């Protein structure tokens, strides 16, 4: 699992920096103002991004939040409330149905 660098968006702008999605998934530090950018460079197949929900509901682990990213599409996902999505280390955990041709980056305001 790789840890994504969180890029801060300013009035001067920020480079749209994305990296190849890791086969074992990725994580990023989350302060509640962070979001995930996902670019699916595949020519025909969609990709599913799964965001782990950390907070139990009625002592049950709810299913992950899943977002489908169509072929050739870029999605901005988030922000992520810390009490729901942060693990014990203050990070959001994400996995993919396939990392092939998938690029991700973390950004915050």
Characterise this structure:
- With about 110 residues, the chain is mainly β.
- It contains 1 helix and 10 strands.
- The longest helix is centred in the last third of the chain and has 4 residues, at about 80-85.
Question: Can I get a quick summary?
Answer:
The longest helix has 4 residues, at 82-85. The chain has one helix at 82-85; strands at residues 2-3, 6-8, 19-20, 26-29, 34-40, 47-51, 65-69, 74-77, 91-96, 102-108. The chain is mainly beta and 109 residues long.
Topology:
Layout: E1 2-3, E2 6-8, E3 19-20, E4 26-29, E5 34-40, E6 47-51, E7 65-69, E8 74-77, H1 82-85, E9 91-96, E10 102-108
Parallel strand pairs: 1-4, 2-10
Antiparallel strand pairs: 3-10, 4-9, 5-8, 5-10, 6-7, 6-9
Helical region count? Answer: 1
Tell me the structural class: mainly beta
Provide the gyration radius in Å. Answer: 14 Å
Number-wise, the strands total 10
Kindly state the mean pLDDT as a whole number?
96
Quaternary state of the chains: single chain
**Low-confidence spans:** none
Largest sheet: 5 strands, mixed
Q: Could you say which overall geometry the principal axes of the C-alpha atoms support?
A: globular
Along the chain, the helix and strand elements come as: EEEEEEEEHEE
Gap between N and C termini:
25 Å
As a percent range, the share of strand residues is 35-45%
Estimate the helix proportion, in percent. under 10%
Q: Keyphrases for this structure?
A:
single chain; 109 residues; mainly beta; five-stranded mixed sheet; globular
């Amino acid at each position: 699992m790789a840890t994504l660098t969180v890029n801060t968006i300013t009035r001067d702008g920020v480079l749209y920096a994305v990296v190849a999605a890791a086969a074992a998934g990725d994580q990023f530090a989350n302060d509640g103002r962070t979001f995930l950018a996902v670019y699916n460079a595949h020519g025909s197949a969609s990709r599913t991004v799964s965001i782990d929900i950390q907070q139990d509901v009625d002592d049950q682990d709810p299913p992950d939040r899943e977002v489908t990213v169509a072929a050739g599409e870029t999605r901005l996902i988030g922000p992520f409330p810390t009490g729901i999505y942060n693990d014990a280390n203050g990070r959001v955990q994400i996995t993919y149905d396939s990392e092939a041709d998938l690029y991700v980056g973390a950004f915050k305001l």
